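User: Can you recover a sequence for this backbone? Please restate the input before giving your answer.

Assistant: Of course. Working from this structure:
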């Protein structure tokens, strides 16, 4: 059995985590969760210090109350 050494290209991984393709995947998952929540929720995406991020927020009073009582945003994530 031969010994194989795997060396991770750290610069490449860093580039991948900040890429537009990674942002599209994050946005796709956030949009799917947001669709299951109904109206009153918004999705935002941004590039952070080390990677891209997507977030879902309650934008109306009814949605904020529903999320506070039932934790609907967390439950919608798959």
């Amino acid at each position: 059995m031969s010994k194989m050494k795997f060396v991770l290209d750290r610069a490449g991984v860093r580039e991948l985590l900040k890429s537009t393709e990674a942002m599209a995947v994050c946005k796709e998952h956030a949009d799917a969760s947001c669709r299951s929540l109904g109206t009153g929720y918004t999705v935002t995406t941004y590039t952070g210090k080390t990677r891209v991020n997507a977030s879902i927020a309650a934008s109306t009073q009814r949605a904020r109350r529903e999320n506070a009582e039932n934790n609907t945003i967390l439950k919608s994530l798959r």
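That completes the design. The longest strand covers residues 41-47.
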